[in-house]
Design goal:
alpha/beta; Rossmann fold; 3 domains; seven-stranded mixed β-sheet; about 30% helix
Length: about 425
Amino acid sequence: MEVATTTKQLVTFQLEDDLFGIDIMLTQEILKLGSLRKIPNSPYYFEGMLNLRGNVIPIVNFKKFFTFGTFDLSKDKGIIITHVEDQHFGIVIDKVQRVVALEDSNIKPTPEGFSKSLKQYIFGVVEYQDEIIAILDIQAIFQITCKDLTEGGEIGHYNLDFRRDKLNNLSVVEEKVIDQFVESLDIKPNIVTSTGVHNYFSRMKIRTQFPMNKVVQRAKESMLEDIYTPFRLDKSDQFFDNDSDYFAILALLEQLIIPNKERKGTNKIRIVNLGCGKGQELYSLLFMLKTYIFGFEKWDVTLIGVDENYNQLNFAKEGLYTSSNLTRINKKDLLNYFDEENGNYRVKKSLRDRIIFRFGTAKNVDTIKDVDMFFCRGIFSRMENNGIEQLLTTIGESLNPQGVLLLSEIEDLYFVEHSLLSPKEINGHRYYICT
């Protein structure tokens, strides 16, 4: 007696160098990625809303959703419109490949090697023409994204809005778990980090709805796996070593700074990276601006990197990096932003010329007039309490009205005297705006 087999068809597509497939019965059509309506305070992986013949459809960026290792600078992309439970949502992908027919019996369990964030959304894998195709559970993904988009607030975790009654609701036991974790790290608590670390874990508890011991355990696992966490205060040698910071910067530019500039009829944007090190943060920001800011060439963008280490400043000016520094940048972007030199990669001169590197210490930074954004990740965490207020005064005097200060996720200025800066939140990331 023959065993009946079920044949299905998959629409396959690329994300970086990996192949994925979804059931063709769940797909409606394939489009080229175009202009989308941005929605403030939406999940970081939410690309925007698409008006498709009168239907407004949410669009999810799968590489952000699955926390891919590379920061995506490519704009030549597609959207697959899918339908689940009589609702539609679109997924941003790199490139559609082909339709593949297969039998259910050919589907194998998901092998080791896939990240946990990805593995939970995979039915299994199938081998096809010497390639491995991971079959995605679109319904499970839809349920998670729909929940994030509709619930908001504490559960959706994108609109905490600095409600201290929510953030400061930790029990004595939870506080002890956090303190024990901090004691194991090379972090010297000050007025900024003592508040910031506890509020970080409080937000994580609200976001994940996990008990605090599990939240802390996940932070430990991330550090052991060498995945970026806010607790790694040492400078990374990688470009784009924390996606959430760069997505927050992009959101602030698109939703706040650029609209303000357009209303005022000016095209000047000035951004300062305090503690620029060897330049990876600032060059990463420049690549992102060049890719995502519409009509970038018409904007008079000045990027200023400040550091107290002359050797690192000279290194940053040269813009020459090894391949080990570039693992989070794909091959296509390497060609767009770097010139190869004897196996190493130098940032193109036309891009290097857009950045000014200057010497300065956190305690003695000169006032820099007409600044729209200070990007200062981890700077305040390494300062003594008496120097923090002085630096904030300089930043406040440097920022334009409605200019912003962006810190790391474990830095919080709540208990610091700073009359010029008011706390806000965008896409779940704190920033401070000059009033």
